[in-house]
Q: What sequence folds into this?
């Protein structure tokens, strides 16, 4: 029986169920969700895209006032 310390538990992915997707990304396909969780380059590019999209939405709302 192996000893499960905090570092080992986290590295084994025991708490993966706690990793949640941001609200804006709930409409992603199953493959996209897997990529988002496992591929850092994909996650970074999606996050940058969503930041830019949110910025555009804020600017449009500000301009419409």
A:
């Amino acid at each position: 029986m192996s000893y499960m310390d905090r570092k080992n538990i986290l590295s084994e992915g025991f708490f993966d169920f706690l990793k949640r997707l941001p609200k804006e990304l709930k409409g992603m396909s199953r493959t996209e969700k897997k990529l988002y969780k496992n591929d850092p380059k994909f996650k970074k590019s999606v996050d940058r895209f969503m930041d830019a999209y949110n910025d555009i939405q804020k600017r449009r709302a500000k301009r419409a006032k």
